[in-house]
Write a structure and sequence with these properties.
globular, 122 residues, four-stranded antiparallel beta sheet, 42% strand
Length: 122
């Protein structure tokens, strides 16, 4: 009677994992960070931004996807990424981006680091 069924069965955990890994596209690939967002236009705020705070490689990350044109999933690709305001190199993997693990391990622990990801039309 307390609405705890999703919590007790573990389905809430799977839901959150699906949001992080599949919707926001934050995944690991052999230790590197793969960003492969599958956000639809309605999931971006009025400024065209969608953000998630997560932990990866023992570093706190605030990942902000910028989609000023409010493009639909499938119509955008990652153009640039900045880390704490500085451009960061990454490898294009289709419509995804792969950031090397060394880039993340160079970050200080115990503070939140911001990744700004610019999305543009394909």
């Amino acid at each position: 009677g307390r609405g705890m069924y999703p919590y007790l069965t573990g389905s809430a955990s799977w839901y959150l994992l699906t949001l992080v890994n599949e919707v926001f596209g934050v995944k690991g690939q052999r230790g590197a960070l793969l960003l492969e967002p599958k956000l639809v236009a309605a999931q971006f705020d009025t400024g065209g931004n969608a953000a998630i705070h997560t932990l990866f490689a023992d570093r706190q990350l605030h990942i902000v996807y910028h989609n000023p044109a409010r493009l639909e999933y499938g119509d955008y690709a990652i153009e640039t990424i900045t880390l704490d305001g500085a451009p960061v190199s990454f490898e294009h993997r289709g419509h995804a981006a792969l950031l090397p693990r060394a880039t993340l391990l160079a970050l200080a622990k115990g503070q939140t680091h911001t990744l700004d990801v610019q999305l543009v039309a394909r």
